[in-house]
Amino acid sequence: MQLNREALLKAYRDMVTIRRFEERVQDEFSKGNIPGFVHLYAGQEASAVGVCSHLGPDDHIASTHRGHGHSIAKGCDVVGMMLELFGRKGGLCGGKGGSMHIADLDHGMLGANGIVGGGPPLVIGAALTAKTLRNSNVAVSFTGDGGSNQGTTFEAMNMAVVLKLPAIFVFENNGYGEYTGAEYAVGSRDIAGRAAGFGMPAVRVDGDDFFAVHDAMREATERARAGGGPSAIEVSTCRFYGHHSGDAQLYRVKDEVRKLREEHDCLKNFRRRVTDARLLEAGDLDAVDAEVAALIDQAVAAALAAPPPEPETLMTDVYVSY
Ligand SMILES: Cc1ncc(C[n+]2csc(CCOP(=O)(O)OP(=O)(O)O)c2C)c(N)n1
Ligand SMILES: [Mg+2]
């Protein structure tokens, strides 16, 4: 299926927003403006956007510690996210969650998650709800190559197959779990194959290529919405920064990141594909770049100007009463 102009521009805007957000977060973190840890998603944008471009606000996603890209792709407010990272009042979680706990239930974003392998069981709950209510919604977990080894992930995949749930397991294989290569730590080196072993259709796609992710996700989403049960998608991707901001990356070979940026940049790839095919003009994309740059400036200015949350709100938003 050919994406129309509007859909292509939206995909590009979302990917550029993630990239510029992450670059700016890196700068602001280095200046000491952001407390705690941040794990940057730059390099992996085609995965979040290729997947989330098939989802509406009533579909759910569960994210990871590397959650900014998933949040932006799912429609979370970028200014609210920046405020949250800075720990300021008005942030998406009141400035009290920070990078690893961004959640936005209004947009079906069940949360970033500091617990590796914590997302898949949450998605089982959301998918079971959708199946019970028969509302055709789907639930998607994003999990890393490291998280693919967790028992929680295995249990969730098994349960999704047994209960034939509208769940989609997206495995972002960026080659590393913290400082350890997936080549070493993923026993079979075949995450999609392992998911298939649980009894669901599973494919591996090139994460440099937005269109490859988008196509695989269309198939998985259509199957899930039609009652055909779960699927898995392994996205081969790469991260342009360290595991977290400040990681010296001594475990990567010299020039690895430079080469990845030159040869495996999903944004450059997208720009080349759509302009070569005359689907969009370079000027269209440049205009999006300028809009996004202004939005990120606005988000940082708002975050720098906002006060921290009031001390008396420390204990609010901690527990939900049902
Ligand atoms: C249950 C649990 N075990 C260990 C950790 C420490 N830890 C944080 S991130 C990470 C690696 C995750 O790797 P991967 O799933 O590939 O995600 P990536 O960082 O590459 O996005 C580990 C082991 C944790 N946060 N939670
Ligand atoms: Mg990884």
Please name the defining characteristics of this protein.
binds thiamine diphosphate, 7 strands, binds magnesium ion, alpha/beta, 12 helices, two-stranded antiparallel ribbon, single chain, globular, 322 residues, Rossmann fold
Architecture overview:
This protein has helices at 5-30, 45-52, 68-73, 78-86, 119-133, 151-162, 182-185, 191-197, 210-225, 256-263, 266-276, 282-305; strands at 60-62, 139-144, 167-173, 176-177, 180-181, 202-206, 231-236. It is an alpha/beta fold and 322 residues long. The chain has one domain (5-315): Thiamin diphosphate (ThDP)-binding fold, Pyr/PP domains (Rossmann fold), CATH 3.40.50. Strands 1-2-3-7-6 form a 5-stranded parallel sheet, with helices on both faces. Strands 4-5 form a two-stranded antiparallel sheet. Strand 6, helix 9 and strand 7 (231-236) form a beta-alpha-beta unit. The N and C termini lie far apart (43 Å). The mean pLDDT is 97. The chain binds thiamine diphosphate and magnesium ion. The site of thiamine diphosphate has 16 residues, from strand 4. Keywords: Oxidoreductase, Thiamine pyrophosphate. It holds the Pfam family E1_dh.
Helix % is 40-55%
Mean pLDDT: 97
Which residues sit in consecutive blocks of at least 5 with pLDDT less than 50? none
> What is the makeup of the main sheet?
5 strands, parallel
Structural class: alpha/beta
Question: What fold name goes in the CATH topology slot?
Answer: Rossmann fold
CATH class: Alpha Beta
* Total helical elements: 12
Give the neighbour order of strands across the main sheet: 1-2-3-7-6
The CATH architecture assignment turns out to be 3-Layer(aba) Sandwich
| Approximate shape | globular
Amino-to-carboxy terminus distance: 43 Å
Compute the CA-based radius of gyration.
19 Å
Ions, cofactors and other ligands present here are: thiamine diphosphate, magnesium ion
The ordered H/E elements are HHEHHHEHEEEHHEHEHHH
CATH H level, superfamily name:
Thiamin diphosphate (ThDP)-binding fold, Pyr/PP domains
- Approximately what portion of the residues adopt beta-strand conformation? 5-15%
Number of domains: 1
Counting DSSP E segments of at least 2 residues, the number of strands comes to: 7
Organism: Rhodopila globiformis (Rhodopseudomonas globiformis)
Cofactor: thiamine diphosphate
Keywords: Oxidoreductase, Thiamine pyrophosphate
Catalytic activity: N(6)-[(R)-lipoyl]-L-lysyl-[protein] + pyruvate + H(+) = N(6)-[(R)-S(8)-acetyldihydrolipoyl]-L-lysyl-[protein] + CO2
